[in-house]
Amino acid sequence: MFYNRNSQPVTEITPYIFVSNSEEQIKEVDEIRKKIKETDLTKKIVNALTENGFSPDKRILYTIYSPEHKILSFSLSNFDGEDKTINRITEIINTITTENNLNIFSVQLGETEKE
Prior knowledge:
By secondary structure, this protein is an alpha+beta fold. It is built from three helices and five strands. Helix content is about 40%, strand content about 20%. A hairpin with a 2-residue loop joins β3 (about 60-65) and β4.
């Protein structure tokens, strides 16, 4: 189960990057996608979360609707679902994304399913 920063369950997560039909917006989203790859953003986020005591899944899902509407989703093996945890993780992530000139993302968190 994934949760947004308001601790509300998120039931639909898709592995797609959504864009409008606007050529300008498609170009903007493509630039964001390139910057995520060029800055090695996923590795930076995983490392920062690990350094702060979290156990993130090594995969992060980026859903980009526009430069202003970006969602980052991933799972943690030690996620307690508490607001203070969600806020701390969101703060860590948005510090990194801002430092890499990607501005802020909405963050959706889930707990890794145990087998």
